[in-house]
Amino acid sequence: HLEEVESELSELKPPEIGAGGFxxxxxxxCPMCGAYGKDIKMEEDKSKVLxxxxxxxxxxxKHVCKKCGYDF
Length: 72
Fold this sequence. Notes:
Structural class: alpha+beta
């Protein structure tokens, strides 16, 4: 019975984080040219209003590639 409980506990253990804590899959990359990092900038998407704070609109964010100009 003890072995069954230990196997259940090992299945519920959280995954270990690597030394850096960040992996390259978490990085935002351009789907067109593959650029990442400083080549990607965030802008307000003026076509999508999320809410209003007082009378000031809060806009959604979008990513824009500085190399190819693609926005996503």
